[in-house]
Amino acid sequence: MMMTSILEVEHVQKTYKGSTLGIKDVSFTIPNGSIVGFIGENGAGKSTTMGTIIGTLRKDGGTIRIFGEEMDLNQVAFKEEIGVVFDTMQLPGDLTVDKLGNVFQQLYKRWDQQAFSDYIDFFSLPQHKKIKGFSRGMSMKLSVSVALSHHARLLILDEATAGLDPGGRDDVLAALREFVQDQKRGILLSSHITSDIEKIADSLVFIKGGEVLLEVEKFALLDHYGIVQCAPDQYEQLEKSIVVAYRKTGEGFDVLVSNKRSIPSSMKPKHVSIDDITLLLMRGEKG
Ligand SMILES: Nc1ncnc2c1ncn2[C@@H]1O[C@H](COP(=O)(O)OP(=O)(O)OP(=O)(O)O)[C@@H](O)[C@H]1O
Question: What residue stretches are annotated with the ABC transporter domain (predicted)?
């Protein structure tokens, strides 16, 4: 059977002990060879979702299929095939990069020392400096190098470009793009830097209050979606099936529509960026 998805998340829920929060209903897919941008405000549920995928958190409900199979955390093979970068990642501080390779060689059956050395060169990281002396951006690049060097098929990156300078962000994005080139791998990337997501993602998943609001291919979002500013009577003329979200303004409504070509000609859609859409989805009401 031809496998078309690297990851399928279906109706996943997680409640933290003693709290009603966490995630309520999260579903989305990472198709082969694609990068999915995960967008949501602080506390929306991105890290919780990622924790249930990599198995650091136990989900309370729903299904997660990785490479077509239901995830079984007891299978070490799954762990080998998932590369992870979290912004609070701890690497052994007393080691230098050249020693770190030996450690990961023991940890990962498919550790690729050559690939790791190439990434260290590519990111211009020092070989002989103790890791605890690395800046935040350098540590991030090192974590990305590790995640890319054990032949994982799925990468989970939580804020992996945070703290990097623009050149460093571009280098990380280039390395990620190359990683999915063979169409057999996939990446889930959360970031508050929407310009990074706009540059690199093939599709986007928007999450708010622990629920997925919208899962959409980037080209469709930029080509077909639009934001229209309309007076209350114009709002009534809109076909409700294309209203994704709306927000009341002083004079009427800002409305995110899924097909800007099917709005009445008296209304002109604004040219939209992912930032505009994110703001309307996060701060507005669901259509
Ligand atoms: N360890 C925890 N115990 C209790 N509640 C938690 C815990 N971790 C997260 N939460 C709650 O779960 C919800 C989702 O949080 P999560 O960390 O997944 O959000 P996020 O989208 O990753 O946010 P950010 O952008 O700030 O990283 C929030 O309401 C948060 O308060």
Answer: 7-234
